Amino acid sequence: MQIKRIEIAGFKSFVDRATLDFGPGIAAVVGPNGCGKSNVVDAIRWALGEQSPRNLRGRAMEDVIFGGSESRKPVGMAEVSLVFVNEKGQGPATVRDYAEFMVTRRLFRNGDSEYLLNKTPCRLLDISELFMDTGIGARAYSIIEQGKVGQILNAKPEDRRFLIEEAAGVSKFKARKKTALRK
Ligand code: ATP
Ligand code: MG
């Protein structure tokens, strides 16, 4: 799985709809301080289901919605879509037949939120399952932010084990076992 495109609207500093295309190979996002580079990474993490505003550098989840600037009024909704290219036959049944699929997250100022898979409403669980064992999830190792390497090195063995299990492809089974035991 590889990220191909990000569409951002009403999320943090991205008030108007912005589309970022990522070709094969390495892409770099460059720009002056405060222009929104880290907000792009926050957008990816958020669309993958991040539930902690602190991990998105905010105090409340509402902080991800564009809050207005000198020239623009605040907006009522944040929306981020991520388009992934997928090798046919890979991933869970929901996306196995698609060469490309899109996940979307929306948040309204009244607190309502939505997750969509290929524009069809779904549960957060469906999104999480898509990326389990791929290393892509909101908390997985595909996003190495500032301070992360030090955090991994200094982590307790149990916490470091989480990353190893994700890489080894065990986390999906652990999650299913947990759900099964709860039933
Ligand atoms: P640096 O090079 O310093 O790391 P950066 O390009 O990573 O900068 P970001 O942290 O992505 O910059 O963007 C910060 C900008 O985003 C700030 O100007 C901040 O006001 C704006 N911003 C963050 N959240 C919102 C919001 N909810 N509404 C409007 N603007 C926001
Ligand atoms: Mg930054």
TrEMBL record:
Family label: Belongs to the SMC family.
Assembly and interaction partners: Homodimer.
Function: Required for chromosome condensation and partitioning.
Comment text on domains: Contains large globular domains required for ATP hydrolysis at each terminus and a third globular domain forming a flexible hinge near the middle of the molecule. These domains are separated by coiled-coil structures.
Protein name: Chromosome partition protein Smc
Residues the entry annotates as binding ATP: 32-39
Cellular localisation: Cytoplasm
